Amino acid sequence: AWACMESDLGNAKDALALFERALLVDSAHAPSHQAMGRVYAFVVEPSQPPEAVACFALALKHNPRHAPTLHAWAQMLERRAESHAKDSKQMWDAARRMYSRAIEVGGDKPHAPSVHALGRLLERRGKHAKAMAMYENRLALSESERSDAPLLATYAQRLLVPRSSQSASSSRSI
């Protein structure tokens, strides 16, 4: 918990040192490897994707069904796709596959954050029907897992409004 707090505060060096200490106790602890990967991907400036990938790969080696690791890796790929025009299509596709895998490893209980993120990614890529299906799947999850249902309903509603009305209404609100 302390390492996560340091990470949340942006203290990458301290967070990494604390995760390293945790891994000395249990080197197979997938959540610690995943959290270190998140620090390398999202907290360290500039981000260090090779180190993040190494951490994510170790987490999945110890627990191939660790959906939070798959989700974090997909997030990193998505962020890189946004900033690297040259390889963006491949990164978008890889992020989509990683989110899909995170959903699949949950079996009967899909990884809810990945369902939501995949819907968002599909919407951004112009695949509105598939995005709507993801949002509907997310809303169908158990009551205990949909604290963000109002936000998802807003996404779904936005997809139902024709694009021309969206741009007209967004320009009026500015």
Specify the overall morphology: globular
User: Spans with pLDDT under 50 lasting ≥5 residues?
Assistant: 164-174
Distance between the termini: 41 Å
The total of helices stands at 10
Structural class: mainly alpha
Structure, explained:
The protein has 174 residues and is an all-alpha fold. 75% of the residues lie in helices and 0% in strands. It contains ten helices and no strands. It has helices spanning 2-8, 12-25, 30-43, 49-62, 67-83, 88-104, 112-124, 128-140, 149-160, 163-172. The termini are far apart.
Describe the SSE topology.
Layout (H helix, E strand, L loop, with lengths): L1 H7 L3 H14 L4 H14 L5 H14 L4 H17 L4 H17 L7 H13 L3 H13 L8 H12 L2 H10 L2
Helix pairs in contact: 1-2, 2-3, 3-4, 3-5, 4-5, 5-6, 5-7, 6-7, 7-8, 8-9
Characteristic key phrases:
174 residues, mainly alpha, 10 helices, 75% helix, globular
Brief rundown of the structure:
The protein has about 170 residues and is mostly helical. It has helices at about 1-10, 10-25, 30-45, 50-60, 65-85, 90-105, 110-125, 130-140, 150-160, 165-170.
